[in-house]
Amino acid sequence: MLHNKTIAFLGAGSMAEAMISGLVKSGKIAAEQIIVTNRSNQERLSALESNYGIKGVKRENLQFDQIDIFILAMKPKDVDKALIDIKSHIKPNQLILSVLAGITTSYLEQNLHKGQQVVRVMPNTSSTIGESATAISPGHETADENVNLTKILLECIGAVYKIEEKDMDIFTGLAGSGPAYFYYLMEHMEQQGVLAGLNIETTRQIIAQTIVGAAKMIQRQDKTPTVLRENVTSPNGTTAAGLDALDENGGGIAISKAVEHAAKRSKEISKQLQESLLVGSLK
Fold first, then answer.
1. How far apart are CA 175 and CA 118, in angstroms?
2. What does the alpha-carbon distance between residue 23 and residue 181 come to, in Å, rounded to a whole number?
3. Which is more confidently placed, 74 or 41?
4. Which of 23, 58, 75, 176 could potentially form a cystine with 172 if both were Cys, beta carbons 3.0 to 4.6 Å apart?
5. Could you report the per-residue pLDDT of 77-98, keeping only the tens digit for each?
6. Which helix (H) or strand (E) holds 136?
7. Percentage of the chain with pLDDT > 70?
8. Which residue stretches of the chain are H helix?
């Protein structure tokens, strides 16, 4: 389904690069079918061309009628200008995927064509290695076939979950910010490994494999995290001692609060962004 599709990234930032890297590494879509464009940074386009074998094109040279899927990947504050630029060049049946944090499908629909095919998507940084947790939320008039196409495309960079747009903030708290929680956990585990005498490279690999293995057990079994935790926790054993220390130091509460606060901040940023865009449009 992807072999005859041409994809254009409008924006060349870090998330665009993460997705490009994952798509190219998947081998499910040819690099020459991927185009990336920005307004003026030719050096950035050249670097992406060189690194991934894709095509870098200046915005004014993009042949819009030859593109099947546009991925909006510019800075969210620049979305108004971008939508004005592309509206006269695109058709309602061309699929628009937006990775713009805080920008709703309704906003995109209102500023493009009636019946515009729009899907809001949110990958995380693990898309670079094809292991992203990606949420998708289609617009009100987006056809099922385009939702399926979006899912197939994004499965090239990891697992895809269709959710309601109102749940994008909690998804951000869980998956968008989630990798940082694991890195934070690893940092502190690593410190203890090194203090105990292990070299840092071995310590890091041990912890990483432990986390990967535990995650795969969740994915491959029907048991809940609670049951799996209880199964490896013997009374008065080493795991119980570690978990007691976590409880005594607010570990569980801290993790819950991290997710809660990230989701809350996502909602705040979205509100602030929508308000600033509205003010800008009234000037």
1. 22
2. 25
3. 74
4. 176
5. 889 889 999 999 999 999 999 9
6. strand 132-138
7. 98
8. 14-26, 42-52, 79-87, 105-111, 144-154, 168-171, 178-195, 200-220, 225-231, 238-248, 251-282
Query: Which residue type, as a one-letter code, is found at position 268?
Result: E
Closest listed residue to residue 24, CA positions, set 42, 48, 45: 48
Cα 27–29–31 angle (5° rounding)? 90
**What one-letter code names the amino acid at 30?**
A
Please identify which residue in the block is written with the tokens 């987006």.
Answer: 142
Strand partners, 35: 8, 55
Q: How far apart are CA 173 and CA 154, in angstroms?
A: 20
Question: Quick one: average pLDDT of 25-35?
Answer: 92
Longest CA span, the chain? 69
Across the range 181-197, mean pLDDT stands at: 97
pLDDT at residue 281, rounded to an integer? 56
